[in-house]
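Example 9 (inverse folding). The structure is encoded as follows.
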């Protein structure tokens, strides 16, 4: 509810005050004086029982009207615009203006909506727009004309009610002759003239907070590794792991909790023809020099990270958290945190670079791969001083070109006076070896071992909700490898099975236009069509969530992942890239 409509409680308080100044809204028709020049409407979100805001229509002496939506109370978010709509019945025209502190825009259009088919039923006008049934109840005997919805046509009379699909959305609350009106202070047709769609785009874009993180960065094999001897510089792209990994430190804005956050990644081949594993991640604790972080392994060598040794004696660097506990105060001090994965993605077979070579194949190849994923659950990690990385595993000299944006969308026009407790994010494990080209091992340990958190994970007592955010993909690219064989992932809590999940994608054939140089077989199938263990070439793997709220008892718990990994064959091996983080809401 908070996401969809923002700070509804605040709006209710404002509306309650307005309600005291209005007569009780009843089903009886409001009497409209002959000299009425102000019409007040209730606007609803879920019918009459949920009031949201007030819309005012003011009538000028020449018969034209101005529609005003009150400016929200409180501190406004960046990009808010005061909008004013005026309608001229005589000229059948509408002017919409948007006023910013630094600029103004408007458009003017004739708008009789002759494209709509209207019919009168039961004394009400009815039409249909985009499969929605709209019903307008008009007082056509009114001596004046007024409507808060001129875009549907300037009908004679005053709008009494408006409903969509049987749900009441607008109702006239009061019609009066006011001594003083507000519409006169707004100068219509001021600022730069634009088209209706352009104004809509401008208003939305100014509300969205966009941060360009990486801009056409090349991820390939052969670049010289950066080395930072002191503090990590801001707004500078640093390349590691032979050039396959890029890092950037930046300062992200502190936004209200009602914002939703999305990653947008654009990728195209710059010479590499294969489907590759990619990851976007943040490094927690990197600016704390007292404890080791994943950046130490990046800037130095993976062997400097905490090591896990499986039963076969293989070493795995930096894949799980290490925790020391201050039991007296019931808090945990994280000695080491693996990177928190924001997005797991997979490149397709050569999109972009090989399109021309495969022209005439009968498929209109895409220019690039576009990935978009919501990361609002990890918002506490996406504000302030942040170190973000993007990686694509490859040994190609051309590699891949990527651009990455973080876009934040508001769900309310105001900034809350105070916020509640922010979610706590605890990184647990990550076997996605983003330092593969620097020597970090693949996640092969599941053949002989399970993956457990080091020591107990303390889950605070009384948490409102505790979720394990889990990403898992299987790899082993031959017929019986784990890439092509479904395998059940079991999550154990304190050694007892609690959840099972089988990552599997059967829709890979939908992305054929992203894979120009995928292998093609005699029967018409392409290798990119085959179902896979939680991924497809050209897609992002979505996280799944396991509810650990029943374990929020203020005690320490061991979280374990077990996967029946397949056996190696003739030098080939299967492995699993799994990452997990706790999202604790208070």
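The amino acid assigned to each position is listed next.
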């Amino acid at each position: 509810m908070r996401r969809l409509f923002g700070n509804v409680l605040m709006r209710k308080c404002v509306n309650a005050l307005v309600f005291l100044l209005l007569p009780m809204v009843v089903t009886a028709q409001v009497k409209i004086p002959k000299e009425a020049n102000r019409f007040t409407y209730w606007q609803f979100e879920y019918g009459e029982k949920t009031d949201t805001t007030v819309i005012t229509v003011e009538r000028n002496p020449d018969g034209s009207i101005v529609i005003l939506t009150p400016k929200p109370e409180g501190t406004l978010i960046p990009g808010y615009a005061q909008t004013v709509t005026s309608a001229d019945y005589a000229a059948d025209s509408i002017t919409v203006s948007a006023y910013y502190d630094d600029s103004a825009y408007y458009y003017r259009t004739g708008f009789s909506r002759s494209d709509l088919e209207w019919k009168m039923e039961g004394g009400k006008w009815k039409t249909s727009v985009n499969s929605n049934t709209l019903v307008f109840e008009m007082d056509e005997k009114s001596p004046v004309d007024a409507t808060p919805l001129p875009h549907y046509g300037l009908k004679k009379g005053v709008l009494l009610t408006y409903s969509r699909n049987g749900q009441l959305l607008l109702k006239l609350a009061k019609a009066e002759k006011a001594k003083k009106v507000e519409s006169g202070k707004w100068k219509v047709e001021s600022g730069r003239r634009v088209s209706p769609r352009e104004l809509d785009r401008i208003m939305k874009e100014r509300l969205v907070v966009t941060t360009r993180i990486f801009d056409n960065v090349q991820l390939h094999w052969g670049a010289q590794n950066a080395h930072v001897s002191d503090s990590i510089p801001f707004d500078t792209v640093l390349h590691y792991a032979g050039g396959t990994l890029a890092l950037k430190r930046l300062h992200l804005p502190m936004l209200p909790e009602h914002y939703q956050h999305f990653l947008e990644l654009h990728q195209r081949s710059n010479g590499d023809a294969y489907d590759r594993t990619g990851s976007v991640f943040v490094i927690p604790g990197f600016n704390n020099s007292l404890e080791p972080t994943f950046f130490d392994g990046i800037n130095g060598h993976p062997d400097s990270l905490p090591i896990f040794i499986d039963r076969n004696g293989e070493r795995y660097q930096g894949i799980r958290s290490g925790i020391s506990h201050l039991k007296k105060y019931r808090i945990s001090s994280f000695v080491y945190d693996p990177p928190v994965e924001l997005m797991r993605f997979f490149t397709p077979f050569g999109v972009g670079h090989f399109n021309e070579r495969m022209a005439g194949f009968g498929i209109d190849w895409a220019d690039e791969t576009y990935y978009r994923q919501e990361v609002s659950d990890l918002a506490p990690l996406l504000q302030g001083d942040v170190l973000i990385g993007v990686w694509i595993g490859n040994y190609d000299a051309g590699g891949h070109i990527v651009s990455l944006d973080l876009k934040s969308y508001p769900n309310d026009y105001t900034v809350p006076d105070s916020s509640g407790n922010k979610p706590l994010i605890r990184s647990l494990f990550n076997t996605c070896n983003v330092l593969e080209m620097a020597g970090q091992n693949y996640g092969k340990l599941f053949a002989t071992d399970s993956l457990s958190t080091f020591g107990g994970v303390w889950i605070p007592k009384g948490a409102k909700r505790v979720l394990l955010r889990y990403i898992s993909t299987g790899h082993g690219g031959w017929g019986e490898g784990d890439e092509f064989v479904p395998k059940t992932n079991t999550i154990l809590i304190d050694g007892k099975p609690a959840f099972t999940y089988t990552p599997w994608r059967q829709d890979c054939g939908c992305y054929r236009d992203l894979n120009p140089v995928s292998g093609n077989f005699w029967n018409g199938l392409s290798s990119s069509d085959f179902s896979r263990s939680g991924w497809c070439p050209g897609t992002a793997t979505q996280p799944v969530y396991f509810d650990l709220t029943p374990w929020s008892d203020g005690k320490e718990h061991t979280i374990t992942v077990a996967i029946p990994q397949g056996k190696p064959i003739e030098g080939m091996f299967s492995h699993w890239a799994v990452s997990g983080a706790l999202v604790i809401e208070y």
